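Before relying on records like the one below, remember that each one covers exactly one chain. Contacts with other chains, cofactors or solvent are not represented anywhere in the record.
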Amino acid sequence: MSDYILLILGIIFMIIGIIGCLVPVLPGPPLSFLGIIFLQLTRFGQFTTATLVVFGSIAAVVTVFDYIIPVWGTKRFGGSKYGTKGATVGLIVGFFIGPLGIILGPLIGAFVGEMIFKDDINYAFKAGFGSLLVFLTGIGLKLAASLAMTFYFIKELIA
């Protein structure tokens, strides 16, 4: 019975981990890694220690990069913290609109953030677009890590 409870928790954490890649307040890869750990605690999980260390390291590195890359990338494109914060708010609002909102929300949010910071439309567009690219890169890294862990979770479950 406890195997199935842990399995259900693992599945829930894998799903929340993928959602967390898109929602800024949830740490996607670490939650996906917890899903792997829950599976490992059942009779279904047979991961090696090395595999668990690799998954844990990937989750940690991607999470750290998720905090470093936006700051570095925004500065690289000449943007400010306003653009990064605007992109985050835009993503949250866009999440409720749907797939198009998830793409356009961060762009519009970054643009508005940069317009608040510096009332120059050319600057705001360039910096906002840069903030969006960096933001999407972070989402892509998190999704790649969480989807890879989900793949191995499912592979281990059905093997």
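The first helix runs from residue 2 to 20.
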